[in-house]
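User: Teach me something about this protein's shape.
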Amino acid sequence: MLGSFAEADDALQEAWLRVQRADTSEVENPQGWLTTVVARVCLNMLRDRREHAHEMPDPVVDAAQEPEQLAVAKDQVGLAMLVVLDTLKPDERLAFVLHDMFAVPFDDIAPLIDKTPAATRQLASRARKRVQDRPQPNVDVPKQREVVNAFLKAAREGDLEGLISVLHPDVTLRAGSLEVVGARQVAGRASTFRRFAGTAEIREVLVGGEAGFVSWVDGELFSLMAFTVQDDRIVAIHVVQDRAQLAGLVSD
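Assistant: First, the predicted structure itself:
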């Protein structure tokens, strides 16, 4: 719902305080009641976020690469999807997440956003279309890794044409507030990776179930990169470089 581990903790703490203050003696459906409380807290936080937006959502970063863990990773919410969710209006996001991910009926969601069930259904439908239009990754993680490794090799060697060959013509690179679109434009940015390739330590990770890597430069945590691979080409690259955010996502 929030795309931020810290905000999720804050939301649960606020919900718990509300529960402590409330009279729950007549609550017949505790699960539904708690869902309502947490959803309302999240909705308020999403509405307030317009003035305090964080640059990139928090993906799940997993260094494990065992086959059974790769299978679980396929069910994780990828960074590309989290980025799309961040573009939705708060009411759209709540309607979509509660209904499509947690099977909450529209009749129960509608009162949370002061809409009719029909209007709530429409909000979720618009959000669903945006989510479905996002780049869909290749579910074969080893194949994703092959493409990402080819990207890394070309970047280290400063091979512009090699980079372009593994990038989709309409690839999108997002790094904080920066957004670059187009294979040649992204390749031009990615070639700067060569500057620290000699001293960088690279560790392969899964980022929301998709191939990625973490880099350290001179012993300092430098960046997290996530790649969405489709039909053997990279269609999206997401970069996290905020040090405070990185510290919460990556363990040494």
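Now, about its shape. The first strand starts at residue 61 and ends at 62. The longest helix spans residues 30-48. If you'd like, I can walk through any region in more detail.
User: That's plenty for now, thanks!
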